[in-house]
């Protein structure tokens, strides 16, 4: 049982990273981006296709990240220009449409589960230490560290820097921000580009653990959204905790034969209960602040 | 009022005319498969677009039929394949069945390869008293229907062969199973395990039939703790082997199902890890194996992709032609169904046991599997030949 918990925790860092990308996008540009993982997977597959063709891993990584950044930038620009005045639901619906399109194109370009699976470079596969039967690799340490850096770094940036202040203003009151002289479209597009690049890095980091084909990577958005829900789409440290919780629950449910058959459902049930618990004192129609 | 009076009879006459025309067309096409002249119409339902894509299957069946036709056909009659794409869509699969069986009047279905055909059309095949010989049987209904007999062992007989290989050929005492179960196939998996238990008197050391997507580490740790020497596995290849390597499971034999037998998957197995795949036909990657030479030559001549599925297509077409050649008298749906229900088994070099249709209520004639191992990013055929459970 303890071994399973540790095994689960070791995957928590990856889940947390995915969730953080969703929360980050929501806090900075106020969009629930369903196409996030698919856009990241585009970059990841660009990279792995280039390394398969013999390109050195560093330029390939740069180009892969650039592809995701550019795609994300285009998506952001479209949302800002054509859907800027629409509400969050419409923007989310646009990203769902983009998700479907990116998945279809990705499947065409990179192949299906059995024919298009690729081996991703796993530079952090070496063992660091062993707890019980579980070997903990550098990848676990790196994902956790990366998740902590994002959580702390973004909080500090939003609270302490001028860019952070402008970003907050932009996401909460875009109209007012523009009136006081913040160049909304340009700044928001830059944020989309940065998030695209970050997502590509995250997907590349989790790929050796969570899936080597395009459709599996694109569908990681489901896990990402579940983790983001724990943080209520706004709280970064809670999102980090949510990732670890999800990993932990998966580990435990895999070890208990009674509930094993329902392994896929359990984490989501727990998250549902958590959400209910957190919102138990909320009054009907309370406006959520970000 | 006046207008409608004029229109209504007109509409009725039109409808009647349409009905008559449709009936006439159907009768002309021989909708009961009773035609005794002209080409012998054969149908197939294939996934060409959609999630389960096998465009090479109808091409390969047609290649065999063309060969037969060039040599004079069957008693002077040509074979005509009518293949329909169902795009893995049950609704379209049903429509395909209606068109092929009822409108076109095909005498049999040969070389179907669809993930939904057997399940949605089995009842219709029974009513129409028509037989189907799928090139690739996918869902459980392909293996437990009275009118369907695929030419592949299918996931369940393959599982028995994989278990048998692990315990009897590789001599492992602790055999474990980590499987993703598709809806409706849980019973088939249990039966396959039971068959192996009865044959060998052994039990699984660990069993998990709910492996999903996500980090495989918890499953690998469970396998490690159970002391598994062989692990049977059927889900995603990449993450499983990457994490098994991290967890130091280099001394475990991982045995996967035929769905993992692709070039891409061979490259995913890290050096030092032991990965095997149980194949359904002679491994397609080696054209020198029995039966493969003719298939490979035919595929290359017609520019068709060489895959395991196209092997199934050639085999389905071959056994169909062989039975038809042995028939005397008219070739209609009725006589074809009778011939297959009464046929004697056919030895076919590409599979581990003879293929037969016969009068049974369910058919899974092909048994056994041949194994390949991942070596340097390629699948290498192992020398043992077909492993048929219970046959030393």
From TrEMBL, chain A:
One example of a Gene Ontology biological process annotation: amino acid transport
Localisation per UniProt entry: Cell membrane
Record's keyword annotation contains Cell membrane: yes
Domain of life: Bacteria
Transmembrane segments: 6-24, 31-51, 57-80, 92-115, 135-158, 187-208, 220-249, 261-277
One GO MF term attached to the UniProt entry: ATP binding
Membrane topology annotation: Multi-pass membrane protein
Main localization of the protein described in the UniProt heading: membrane
CDD domains: TM_PBP1_LivH_like
Keywords: Amino-acid transport, ATP-binding, Cell membrane, Membrane, Nucleotide-binding, Transmembrane, Transmembrane helix, Transport
PANTHER family xrefs: ABC TRANSPORTER PERMEASE PROTEIN (PTHR11795:SF450), BRANCHED-CHAIN AMINO ACID TRANSPORT SYSTEM PERMEASE PROTEIN LIVH (PTHR11795)
Similarity remark: Belongs to the binding-protein-dependent transport system permease family. LivHM subfamily.
Name of the protein: Branched-chain amino acid ABC transporter permease/ATP-binding protein
Species, as recorded: Embleya hyalina
From TrEMBL, chain B:
Signal peptide (UniProt feature, chain positions): 1-26
One Pfam family from the record: Peripla_BP_6
Keyword Signal: yes
PROSITE patterns to which the protein is assigned, alphabetical: PROKAR_LIPOPROTEIN
SUPFAM superfamilies cross-referenced by the UniProt entry: Periplasmic binding protein-like I (SSF53822)
Domain Leucine-binding protein per the UniProt entry, residue ranges: 40-377
Gene3D superfamilies membership: 3.40.50.2300
Domain of life: Bacteria
PANTHER family linked: BLR6548 PROTEIN
Protein's name according to its UniProt entry: Urea ABC transporter substrate-binding protein
Originating species: Embleya hyalina
């Amino acid at each position: 049982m303890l071994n399973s918990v540790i095994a689960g925790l070791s995957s928590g860092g990856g889940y947390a990273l995915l969730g953080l990308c969703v929360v980050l996008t929501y806090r900075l540009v106020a969009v629930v981006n369903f196409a996030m993982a698919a856009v990241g997977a585009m970059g990841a597959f660009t990279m792995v296709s280039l390394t398969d063709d013999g390109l050195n891993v560093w330029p390939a990584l740069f180009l892969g990240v650039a592809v995701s950044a550019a795609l994300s930038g285009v998506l952001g620009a479209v949302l800002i220009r054509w859907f800027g005045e629409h509400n969050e639901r419409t923007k989310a619906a646009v990203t769902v449409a983009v998700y479907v399109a990116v998945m279809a194109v990705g499947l065409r370009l990179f192949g299906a589960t059995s024919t298009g699976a690729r081996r991703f470079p796993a530079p952090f596969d070496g063992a660091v230490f062993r707890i019980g039967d579980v070997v903990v690799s550098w990848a676990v340490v790196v994902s956790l560290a990366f998740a902590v850096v994002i959580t702390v770094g973004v909080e500090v940036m939003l609270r302490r820097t001028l860019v952070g202040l402008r970003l907050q203003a932009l996401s909460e009151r875009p109209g007012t921000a523009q009136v006081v002289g913040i160049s909304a479209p340009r700044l928001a597009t830059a944020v989309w580009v940065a998030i695209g690049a970050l997502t590509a890095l995250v997907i590349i980091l989790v790929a050796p653990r969570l899936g080597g084909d395009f459709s599996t990577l694109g569908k990681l958005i489901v896990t990402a959204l579940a983790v983001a829900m724990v943080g209520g789409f706004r709280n970064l440290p809670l999102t980090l905790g949510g990732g670890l919780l999800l990993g932990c629950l998966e580990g435990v449910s895999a070890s208990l034969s009674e509930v094993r058959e329902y392994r896929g459902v359990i984490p989501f049930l727990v998250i549902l209960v958590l959400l209910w618990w957190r919102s138990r004192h909320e009054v009907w129609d309370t406006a959520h602040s970000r | 009022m006046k207008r409608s009076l004029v229109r209504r009879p007109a509409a009725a006459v039109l409808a009647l005319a349409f009905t008559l025309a449709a009936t006439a067309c159907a009768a002309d096409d021989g909708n009961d498969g009773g035609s005794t002249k002209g080409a012998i119409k054969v149908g197939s339902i294939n996934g060409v677009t959609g999630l389960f894509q096998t465009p090479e299957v109808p091409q390969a069946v047609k290649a065999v039929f063309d060969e037969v036709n060039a040599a004079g056909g069957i008693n002077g009659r040509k074979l005509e394949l009518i293949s329909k794409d169902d795009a893995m869509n049950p609704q379209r699969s049903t429509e395909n069945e209606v068109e092929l069986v009822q409108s076109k009047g095909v005498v049999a279905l040969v070389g179907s390869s669809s993930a939904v055909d057997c399940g949605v059309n089995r009842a219709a095949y029974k009513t129409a008293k028509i037989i189907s010989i799928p090139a690739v049987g996918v869902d459980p209904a392909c293996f437990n229907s009275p009118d369907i007999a695929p030419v592949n062992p299918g996931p369940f007989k393959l599982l028995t062969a994989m278990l048998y290989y692990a315990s009897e050929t590789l001599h492992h005492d602790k055999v474990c199973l980590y499987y993703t179960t598709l809806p409706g196939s849980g019973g088939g998996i249990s039966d396959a395990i039971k068959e192996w238990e009865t044959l060998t008197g052994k039990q699984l050391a660990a069993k998990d039939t709910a492996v999903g997507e996500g980090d495989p580490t918890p499953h690998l740790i469970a396998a490690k703790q159970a002391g598994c020497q062989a692990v049977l596995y059927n889900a995603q290849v990449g993450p499983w082997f990457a994490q098994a390597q991290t967890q130091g499971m280099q001394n475990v034999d991982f045995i996967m199902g035929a769905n993992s037998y692709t070039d891409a998957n061979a490259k995913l197995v890290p050096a030092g890890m032991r990965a095997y795949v149980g194949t359904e036909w002679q491994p397609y990657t080696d054209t020198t194996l029995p039966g493969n030479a003719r298939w490979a030559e035919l595929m290359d001549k017609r520019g068709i992709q060489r895959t395991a599925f196209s092997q199934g297509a050639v085999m389905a077409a071959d056994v169909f032609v062989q039975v038809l050649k042995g028939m005397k008298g008219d070739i209609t749906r009725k006589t074809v169904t009778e011939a297959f229900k009464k046929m004697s088994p056919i030895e076919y070099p590409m599979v581990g046991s003879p293929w037969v249709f016969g009068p049974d209520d369910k058919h899974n004639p092909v048994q056994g599997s041949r194994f390949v191992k991942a070596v340097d990013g390629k699948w290498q055929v192992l020398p043992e030949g077909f492993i048929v459970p219970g046959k030393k």
